[in-house]
Design brief:
alpha/beta, 10 helices, binds guanosine-5'-diphosphate
């Protein structure tokens, strides 16, 4: 079922952590006509602008890695933007893709679409079985709408569109903003700067007890291309690595990779969010894919990238 390497593949969100990794992977496995678009090429929250890009580029295959994303603080502070922008972006992309006859599309969701108290590891069939985590419910509802849209286009028009639900992603080129980013890049910045400045302590949010699963962006990029080649069903596919760590363990790993030897202080005034998010990846494993990066190695890779780019960020 592998895709024709001559197909024109459009990756929306091409400068983001996930989109850029998908493009690298597509090119690596021999796709000859990969085009990326991002917000500077077209405002994807604008229906007409999105439509005209699709009419100009006429893709055969689409990967939707475009989204407004952010960590727990950004999601909590800006629920309206996270809901509206993501609904608009995906609706515009799907409508335009359908209009120009795109039969193969991969939509990227998020593991936060699962109920806050879902049984762990989380199977795809836990969807909509309980209430969401409140700190990111607006983002999660938008992504759930995207998943149902993909299923609806399949049912109504027979398109071979699919959805992947990745766990927390990290890697070189991530958003390393000190307060708006996700935990892993936030800690990379904080521990790197503390080691550089010989600081005595680093503050980490929450209690350190929540557990998260992290996938390197190159592994996620590879999984996305693998799914385009080998998966075609309405049910989403979890994309993860199968193991999780506590935020306290994560902080230790980042401290070590950054060469920080001081104290870690917990700021319990900050929210913990979902207590645990570990995906059941048996459906993905059943398609014959497994990750390549271990977490310690991936963190070293990311710290190295940040160190060499820190003056620009
Ligand atoms: P989540 O997986 O959707 O909750 O997203 P995050 O990556 O933002 O947060 C994961 C966990 O890391 C939460 O329990 C946060 O409280 C914790 N955390 C600790 N320090 C930080 C930090 O500096 N930034 C962020 N975003 N989260 C942090």
């Amino acid at each position: 079922m592998t895709l024709d390497r001559a197909a024109r593949v459009l990756v929306a969100g091409s400068t983001g952590l996930v989109g850029s990794a998908v493009i690298r992977r597509l090119e690596r496995v021999g796709f000859q006509d990969v085009v990326g678009i991002h917000s500077a090429d077209a405002d994807l929250t604008d229906t007409a602008a999105t439509r005209s890009v699709f009419e100009r580029l006429r893709p055969n295959v689409v990967v939707d890695a475009a989204a407004r994303v952010g960590g727990i603080a950004a999601n909590h502070a800006e629920p309206v933007e996270f809901l509206n922008d993501n609904l608009l972006i995906q609706t515009n992309l799907f409508t335009a893709a359908h209009a120009v006859g795109v039969h193969r599309l991969l939509f990227l969701g998020s593991s936060c679409i699962y109920p806050r108290d879902a049984a762990q590891p989380i199977k795809e069939d836990a969807l909509l079985t309980g209430p969401l985590e409140s700190t990111n419910d607006a983002y999660a509802i938008a992504k759930l709408a995207g998943l149902v849209a993909v299923q609806s286009y399949r049912r109504r028009y027979g398109h071979r569109w699919i959805s992947a639900m990745p766990t927390n992603v990290y890697g070189p080129g991530d958003n390393f903003h000190p307060t708006r980013s996700h935990v892993l890049p936030a800690l990379v910045r904080r521990f790197y700067e503390a080691a550089r400045d010989d600081a005595e302590e680093v503050v980490v949010w929450g209690t350190g007890t929540p557990r998260r699963e992290f996938i390197h962006s190159d592994d996620l990029g590879a999984a996305c291309v693998h799914l385009l080649d080998h998966y075609d069903a309405a049910e989403p596919v979890n994309v993860g690595v199968g193991t999780d760590v506590s935020i306290a363990e994560l902080a230790e790993l980042v401290a070590e990779a950054a060469g920080f030897r001081g104290r870690i202080v917990w700021d319990r005034s900050k929210p913990d969010g979902t207590p645990r998010k570990l995906l059941d990846v048996s459906r993905l494993a059943g398609t014959g894919w497994k990750p390549r990066f271990g977490l310690a190695e991936g963190i070293r890779d990311t710290v190295e990238w940040f160190a060499s780019s820190a003056t620009r960020l």
